[in-house]
């Protein structure tokens, strides 16, 4: 369960007294999220989510995250909406941690996405990019190409413990990505973490997106590349072009990709695979005994990186 900071009844009730969300009926810690402590609140006014932000989330980034949620929600994007306290603030302090309350989002994530889910995601991602176009705050992406080498160097000496030859392969790939990474593609606010567990559906229809805590300013098509990796590979490692076609064509229908974005998509997908491979590799090698969250296998993303490296055209993703 993702509760790292415990909250006692008295301090919770004192915190909630600063909001107009009714009286507390019950609350419980919930498993969603691996970065923060989350509690489901049931009050006389409805259901809400309380988040206590732990050490891996920088407090100075919270106005960006909460402001972005509020901004895109005002443009029609279904996502949790921050609740303001009686002073008009979206952020408070509880149990010594920065804390916020957001609206409860209906729906469920899907364990085995189908092409229809991927199409809904593609259209939803494009709408999110359009909605964020005039968001005034900015946040640099610490996990883009400029941040990959420090991550790699932190794991390089032990990388071959995971797979023989991994350090050399990653060194070569990283050099290639640094040399060819595009910096002149359309930019904007990206979600940067739209994995299936961060997207809710009611039936086959997208009901909302959650977990904005990696959102930042970066290349818009890179966000689409992240989704290709997260949604379009099967459990056996094979690439599902039917899902990819549904995802990319639905995105392209709402926000048409220009020629440079299309041409760069295989490279962006390689970069996306590298980003998640490196963070997983670091967590795998630096996993503290007794930690609550089990690290994910980095080699899944090595296979995906190799797949994208073999491509020369966006046609492999269902785009011509």
TrEMBL record:
Q: Which GO terms describe its biological process?
A: threonine biosynthetic process
- GO molecular function per UniProt: ATP binding; homoserine kinase activity
Copy the pathway line from the protein's UniProt record: Amino-acid biosynthesis; L-threonine biosynthesis; L-threonine from L-aspartate: step 4/5
The residue ranges crossing the membrane are none
Please state what class of enzyme this protein is: transferase
What InterPro entries would the database entry show? Aminoglycoside_PTrfase (IPR002575), Homoserine_kinase_II (IPR005280), Kinase-like_dom_sf (IPR011009), Pseudomonas-type_ThrB (IPR050249)
Domain named Aminoglycoside phosphotransferase is located at 27-257
Recorded E.C. number(s)?
2.7.1.39
Against Pfam families, the record matches this protein to: APH (PF01636)
Q: Which UniProt keywords apply?
A: Amino-acid biosynthesis, ATP-binding, Kinase, Nucleotide-binding, Threonine biosynthesis, Transferase
Catalysed reactions listed for this entry: L-homoserine + ATP = O-phospho-L-homoserine + ADP + H(+)
Which family does the record assign?
A: Belongs to the pseudomonas-type ThrB family.
List the protein's name: Homoserine kinase
- UniProt organism field: Parvibaculum sedimenti
């Amino acid at each position: 369960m993702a509760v790292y900071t415990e909250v006692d009844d008295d301090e919770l009730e004192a915190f909630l007294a600063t909001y107009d969300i009714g009286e507390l009926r019950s609350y419980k810690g919930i498993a969603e999220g691996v970065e923060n402590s989350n509690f489901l609140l049931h009050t006389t006014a409805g259901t809400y989510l309380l988040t206590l932000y732990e050490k891996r989330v920088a407090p100075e980034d919270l106005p960006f995250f909460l402001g972005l949620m509020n901004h895109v929600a005002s443009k029609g994007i279904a996502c949790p909406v921050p609740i303001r306290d009686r002073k008009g603030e979206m952020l408070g302090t509880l149990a010594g941690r920065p804390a916020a309350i957001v609206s409860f989002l209906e729906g469920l994530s899907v364990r085995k996405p189908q092409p229809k889910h991927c199409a809904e995601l593609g259209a939803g991602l494009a709408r999110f990019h359009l909605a964020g176009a005039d968001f005034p705050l900015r946040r640099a992406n610490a996990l883009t190409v400029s941040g990959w080498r420090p991550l790699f160097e932190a794991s390089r000496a032990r990388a071959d413990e995971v797979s023989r030859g991994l350090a050399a392969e990653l060194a070569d790939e990283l050099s290639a990505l640094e040399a060819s990474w595009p910096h002149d593609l359309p930019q904007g606010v990206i979600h940067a973490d739209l994995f299936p567990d961060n997207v809710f559906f009611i039936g086959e229809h997208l009901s909302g997106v959650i977990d904005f805590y990696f959102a930042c300013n970066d290349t818009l098509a890179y966000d689409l590349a992240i989704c290709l990796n997260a949604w379009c590979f099967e459990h056996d490692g094979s690439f599902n072009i039917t899902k990819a076609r549904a995802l990319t064509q639905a995105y392209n229908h709402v926000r048409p990709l220009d020629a440079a974005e299309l041409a760069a998509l295989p490279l962006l997908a390689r970069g996306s695979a590298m980003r998640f491979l490196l963070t997983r590799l670091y967590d795998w090698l630096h996993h503290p005994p007794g930690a609550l969250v089990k690290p994910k296998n980095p080699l899944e993303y090595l296979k995906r990186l190799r797949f994208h490296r073999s491509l020369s055209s966006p046609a492999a993703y269902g785009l011509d």
